[in-house]
């Protein structure tokens, strides 16, 4: 039986350093698939979110199997889809679109991706109070994962207060009122926190800096990051200098790609092999 041909892509802004193309293609090679993965970067194309309808239509016309969706498109793409998985609907953000039977079906593999990395690396950390920076598409997925993993009180900070409130309301529908709240005073929240998670783009090579001043960190805190280029952000570097336990963004990048690969190909991905490949790409930089 002939194995399927896969044509996938990633839509986002400033994604030239993205790892998914190599991750997907090498896993496809390992499984004997014809697997091509292309970047559709809004920045060099001089496009913005208004181009999403045309890009989706073009991908369908060129018989793409599906698309990954990243910053800043994970929520803007929702109205352009025909169906949402239960997880994507609950989170209110999509990072994977599968074209099937003439329909655009949205999924969210970010939540599962972050949760898998968290379970593997921070399974035994205290989680009574956690501070999360960012309430965008990735932030929504991570917040769902954190509450599902037993975080009791999640304080969410975002430069857009309305967006943070919308996420808190969304979380209340699934997890009950009171477990998530809009953060109001970062210094106080950090002083009481067990853990800190960054879901903003702050720390990326093209957006250097840290979402939380180094003086608010302390050794007892655990710190998780979703930015993976660079793998050691300024936030993680500051945290590690203090002796904090940390989780880098590579974990979410790999484990969300594992699930997306399976959605695109219909084949089971080898998570260990994809993790090893990701690590080899970063050590060869």
Automatic annotation (TrEMBL):
Enzymatic class: oxidoreductase
Residues the record lists as binding NADP(+): 134-138, 226, 249
Catalytic activity: shikimate + NADP(+) = 3-dehydroshikimate + NADPH + H(+)
A Pfam family per the record: Shikimate_dh_N
GO MF: shikimate 3-dehydrogenase (NADP+) activity
Residues involved in shikimate binding: 70, 95, 110, 228, 256
Family named by the database record: Belongs to the shikimate dehydrogenase family.
Role description: Involved in the biosynthesis of the chorismate, which leads to the biosynthesis of aromatic amino acids. Catalyzes the reversible NADPH linked reduction of 3-dehydroshikimate (DHSA) to yield shikimate (SA).
UniProt protein name: Shikimate dehydrogenase (NADP(+))
Organism whose genome encodes this protein: Pseudomonas haemolytica
Gene: aroE
């Amino acid at each position: 039986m002939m194995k399927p041909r896969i044509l996938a892509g990633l839509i986002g802004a400033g994604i030239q350093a993205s790892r998914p193309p190599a991750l997907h293609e090498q896993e496809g090679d390992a499984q004997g698939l014809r697997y091509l993965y292309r970047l559709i970067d809004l920045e060099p194309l001089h496009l913005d979110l208004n181009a999403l309808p045309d890009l989706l239509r073009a991908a369908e016309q060129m018989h793409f199997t599906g698309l990954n969706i990243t910053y800043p498109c994970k929520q803007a793409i929702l109205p352009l889809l025909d169906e949402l998985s239960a997880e994507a609907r609950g989170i209110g953000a999509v990072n994977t679109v599968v074209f099937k039977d003439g329909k655009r079906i949205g999924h969210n593999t970010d939540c599962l991706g972050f949760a898998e990395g968290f379970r593997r690396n921070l399974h035994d950390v205290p989680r009574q109070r956690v501070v999360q920076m960012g309430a965008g598409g990735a932030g929504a997925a991570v917040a769902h994962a954190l509450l599902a993993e037993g975080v009791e009180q999640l304080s969410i900070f975002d430069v857009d207060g309305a967006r943070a409130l919308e996420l808190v309301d969304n979380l209340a529908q699934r997890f009950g009122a009171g477990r998530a709240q809009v953060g109001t005073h970062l210094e106080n929240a950090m002083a009481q926190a067990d853990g800190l998670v960054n879901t903003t783009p702050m720390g990326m090579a093209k957006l250097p800096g840290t979402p939380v001043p180094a003086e608010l960190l302390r050794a007892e805190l655990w710190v998780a990051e979703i930015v993976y280029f660079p793998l050691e952000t300024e936030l993680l570097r500051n945290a590690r200098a203090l002796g904090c336990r940390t989780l880098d963004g590579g974990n979410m990048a790999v484990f969300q790609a594992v699930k997306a690969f399976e959605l695109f190909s219909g084949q089971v991905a080898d998570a260990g092999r994809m993790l090893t490949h990701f690590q080899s790409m970063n050590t060869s930089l």
